[in-house]
Amino acid sequence: MTWKILSATVLSAALLTVTSPITAQESEKETNARAACFKEAHAAAARQGQASTLPQGDAGQYAYDAYVSCCKRVGIRP
Questions:
Q1: Which of 25, 44, 46, 73 stands the most exposed, by the fewest C-beta atoms within 10 Å?
Q2: Could you give the C-alpha distances from 60 to 38, 54, 57, 72, in angstroms and in order?
Q3: CA–CA dist 74, 4 (Å, integer)
Q4: What is the mean pLDDT of residues 32-49?
Q5: Residue 5: what are its φ and ψ, rounded to 5°?
C-alpha cells in the first residue's frame, strides 16, 4: 500500500516538472503583458469616469472588460 502512494507521488512530481516548464523569459513576457493590460484597464476606467454620467461602478466594468479583452488579445489567461 505504501509503495503505491510513494510511486504515485513520484510519478506526479515527475509529470508536473515535465508538463509545465516555464522559463524565466516566458514568465517575464507574461508579467510585462499583464502590466500592459492593467494599464489599458486603468485608462479605460479613467476615460469612462471622465466622459460619463453613469454611476461610478460602471467604470469598473469597463476596466474589467478592457483587461479581459487585452489578455485574450495577447494570449494570456486573465
A1: 25
A2: 12, 11, 5, 18
A3: 42
A4: 88
A5: -65, -45
